[in-house]
Design goal:
With 169 residues, the chain is of the alpha+beta class. Helices cover 57% and strands 18% of the residues. It contains 3 helices and 5 strands, in the order H-E-E-E-E-E-H-H. The protein is elongated and about 75 Å long.
Amino acid sequence: MQQAEDPARRRAVRLRRARISVIVAAVAVSVLAVLLVLAAWRDDHLISSDEGVTSAEVLSAGRLRSAVIFVTPDGETHNPKTGVLYPTKLTVGERINVEYRRSDPDLVRVAGRDARVAIIPAASVIVVAWLLAIPALWLLGSPPQLWLAAVRTRVDRARTRWSRARTGQ
């Protein structure tokens, strides 16, 4: 009898681990996408708090990274190693206005663009991650009815704790 249960138990453990792995991957991708947007807002805040504006020339243009060169009012020429923030739709040789942090001219963005341009791509990544994770979870033996039951159980437990805390029990 023990031998018959072992393969079934091992399979159940493997499926549970697979489900957990899918959830961890989807949550990790979602958290990273949110952190990306938060980092963009932080960079925008840093630039806005000590902002300089000038004209720059686009040296190389790509979807994810574009290099620019610009001269600050003190006569220094800057070519940020990390490129310019929000580089979409730039062409080589184009003259653009950039906003930079005066105390750190390597932190530069295309004028008029901010972290809002990162929201849609980040949200798209999150949606795709979960659109892949949900069917995978379903195929691994975790249908939505079980998810709803788990949520209901947690909500009921939270209500019970809240009512006990409220009544002082």
